[in-house]
Design goal:
Structural class: mainly beta
Radius of gyration: 15 Å
Number of helices: 3
Strand content: 25-35%
Bound molecules: zinc ion
Distance between the termini: 11 Å
Strand order of the largest sheet: 1-12-3-10-6-5
Order of helices and strands: EEEEHEEHHEEEEEE
Length: 193
Amino acid sequence: MIEVIKRQTGAAFRLKKGQKLKVIDPNGEQVSDMVLFNAKDTREKISSGKTLDFEESILISQGDHLWSNRSNQMMEILEDTNGRNDFLLAPCSPETFQIMYNNNEYHPSCFENLYTNLEKFEIQPDEIPTAFNIFMNVQFDTNGKLSVDPPLSKAGDYVLFEAKMDLLVGLTACSAEDSNGGSFKPIHYEIID
Ligand SMILES: [Zn+2]
């Protein structure tokens, strides 16, 4: 069954070892931030540093694993029809919009959508790690200068993950203007046994 994450919102759910998670961009050009916790001990969580180290790449896609802070495999990426994801930048937060956009008004954010949805699993805001940013198109030059460009994903592009341990998953439809080509769209996902 396809589940819908409405624009600028999020979801959190359990994923058992061996189950697959398909994250779909239904309209194109929409980022989805994903964080993972070990369902049996939430002090173990997804780690950007460990993943980039063990996969020897800053571009994580099909065939790669997502690793934990305890150096265990949490997920394997089985398929990736778009092929561009980011694992460098933290989830957008209220401060992102103040610091990067000079916006002091209330603004929805992935950080808020992650911690409010993960509250039911007793995850605290300070425990939210750097997310695996599905479909996010962060480019960098040889000097290390970063730019956040519109996603390259087209309508129907998806990434298929397989859980390597029992997981708690937080997932969003990202709320940052620059990350999503200037408009906010939904994200679809499906849990496959
Ligand atoms: Zn975001």
